[in-house]
Design brief:
Distance between the termini: 99 Å
Largest sheet: 10 strands, mixed
Strand content: 15-25%
Structural class: alpha/beta
Number of helices: 14
Amino acid sequence: MRKNGLLIMIGSALLFNISCISKSKEADSNKEEVRLITLNPGHFHAALIQKVSYPGVSKDVYVYAPEGEDIKEHLKKIESFNARTDSPTQWNEIVYIGPDFLEKMIAEKKGNLMITAGNNGKKTDYILATLKAGINVLSDKPMAINSKDFETLQTCFKTAQQNNLLLYDIMTERFEITTVLQKEISLIPEIYGKQEKGTPQDPSIYIKSVHYFLKEVAGSPLIRPAWFFDIEQEGEGIVDVATHLVDLIQWECFPGVIIDYNKDIKILDANHWSTPISLNEYKRVTNTKQFPDFLTKYISHDTLHIYANGDILYKIKDIHAKVSVLWNYSSKRGGDLHFSVMKGSKALLIIQPTEGMGNHPELCIKANLKVDVAKYAKKIEQAFQVIADKYPGVTLKEKEKGLWQVEIPDKYFNGHESHFEQVTEKFLDYLKNQTMPAWEIPNMIAKYYVTTKALELAKKKSVTGNE
């Protein structure tokens, strides 16, 4: 009896220990699980983060927002992802709606990663409050739309560092295949040579992006919020879309290099101008009946004028760069356009939109006028093999003497919406390892210095009549 009793005691103790270990592992697992918070989602980019599911990310998502159409549109998009027949998601949106949504989010602290994509006039303050509460942040661009926001953003990064948190913005354009290959080819000296320095009159890198107010997202017409047309809430073009372009210049021309905006950046020129939108056009993209009162100051002769366009000319380290942003109402092509040229001592790398390619952009290599084309042609095929090996199916086709097209299979064009998945996966990896490359944070700060400082200059020129 005593022996049996001892065995029972030992067995019970073992079961207790196993149970404790199991619970301990479960607790560790829960601790490691990423729990998303979505704060005041007013832009469709917030929903695109959840177009797919991610390993290690809870299906429960805590949403905090004020009452209005923004939150309704956001939840509709999430539901469409859950309801689709092809690879449906299983997000469970736990929603709080009220004017104190920010305070409620901070008080409850249900998640450990906040997603923000919406009203840019409030975004920087949201980010700072979230970081102070001990929550990581993945933010849509832009994280700052004026000089005051830029100062706050620097405080955000300091707060993140103090609290061992990560703050990151969503740079989808780094994953577009023509841009990826443009960067990779620029790193092959036999093809590209060295990066040209350029001049203010002839920059060595130029990127232009053309966008449209009327468009489709996830197969449905995009309804834009009324505040999207207010530059004090959305931001002007040179502090919004230009964020991507400035980021690409740093990422392509100075890969892995830390940019110090105090020493490495000099704004040379900046301009901005408006896009006219009629009341009927406004009604169509916002699904509303009239212009709201806060847009009155931008209306002339029943037409809304939005400062959505602009350009920035600047020097980054030793090269001259220029970015341009244009917004039109609609496009017959059905998609945004991207143009880019990088100038090397041996070749120009050109991205341009083309017809008849499924609206895919085209990447070409054009021999520099200084180069002996006959000798260059003999070397380029061999040098390009590095790209062909890394990206199976990508080939080089000579279009004419001194000009080659990089032929890219359709499988590499996964679309703008899929790039949000790729950015999120990259950030989740950073979050898991609790680290980012050393250049990411200073380069984010440098990027927003360029855009906000350029806006200052463009506005000053407008006031003085020097546009």
